[in-house]
Amino acid sequence: MKLAIWSVTRGAGFIGVGISKKIPNSTLFTLSKFNIDESIQMENFTETLNEKFHEFDGHIFIMATGIVIRKISKLIISKDVDPAVVVIDEGLNFAISLLSGHLGGANELVEYLGNRLGVVPIVTTSSDVTGKIAVDTLSQKLKCQLESLEKAKNVTALIVDGKDVELHLPKNICSEGFSEGVIVVSNREKLEMIQLYPKNIIVGIGARRGIEKEIIFDFLKEIFKKNNLSLKSIKHFATVDLKADEVGILEVVKELGKELKIVSRNEILEVENLFEGSDFVKKEIGVRAVSEPCAFLTSSKDGKFLEMKAKYKGVTLSIYEERFIYEKR
Fold this sequence. Notes:
It is built from 12 helices and 14 strands.
């Protein structure tokens, strides 16, 4: 988790230095007028926060909650994209989960800070304080994507209200496969239901130089429809190093909000004999295949190909489905 630590007083700045040393992957911001070493010194707190807010996974503010609320109010977008926001008082007494407690991880962050700093973690989300699990937390634990924030809220409300809510997982959830149909037995006319999308689909992609985004996107949607798959379940895309700057690929990946993993040709050479290749591709770029080995090499290698090599207008797609593991706790 990439964290930013913010302070606007001299005392909070020195406290932030101590905190940053105990929290890996954290960056401390202090006001330049205090000239505090081991921090990024800023001239203007508001301007710097506005610029950096969505660049971090979480924020730790060492200041009053009122200040934080006023400063982040115009930066908030939605609970599924907003970073975690935690407030710590200068006396190092409390760590308050203020924003994105579930999906953003603020609730877990304050628990972590409690262990590392000796502060009291403050969590106010109803499902947590009553010892129940919210749907968005369940989705996060299962590494899935929510079908709908509205549906998640409705089902979580039932859980918090003490209603019976069932969790249906395929019997073979710890091996392979996913249900393609659901039977619900209930005497209730209205049922609150929601689908969680496991992020276990890896898309290996190869494309000719200058390929248009629209061609890639249309073909991707066609292949996913053919295999009855949701784009929400894409874990990441993968391609060869030569295509790391291919605009069409980058635009599709960005629009879907996914990660593009780059695989070197040296890595592909080690496994290319496992896949059907092309002499022409070998002559052009030095390896016999791209999409299949890229998907395989960036996967857990515990799963199967749903689509080995689909081709259309200069685009090649390979779809790898990782085995979905649900760990009971």
